[in-house]
Amino acid sequence: MDEFELIQSFFINSKNQTFSEQKNITLGIGDDAAVFELTAGKQLVTCVDTLVAGVHFPEDGSAADIAYKSLAVNLSDLAAMGASLHSFTLSLTLPEKDELWLKSFSDSLFELANQHRLVLVGGDMSRGPLSVSIQLNGVVDAGKFLRRDAAKENDLICVTGHLGLAALGLQEYKKGKFKSQSAQLRFLRPEARLEFALGLYDLGVRCAIDISDGLLSEIGHLCRASKLSAKIDTGNLLVHQDLQQLSSIDARELMLSGGDDYELCFAVSESALSAVEQWAQELALPLSVIGGFQKQGNTMIYEQSGAPVAVAGYQHF
Ligand code: ADP
Ligand code: MG
Question: What are the beta bridge partners of residue 157?
Answer without folding.
Answer: 267, 291
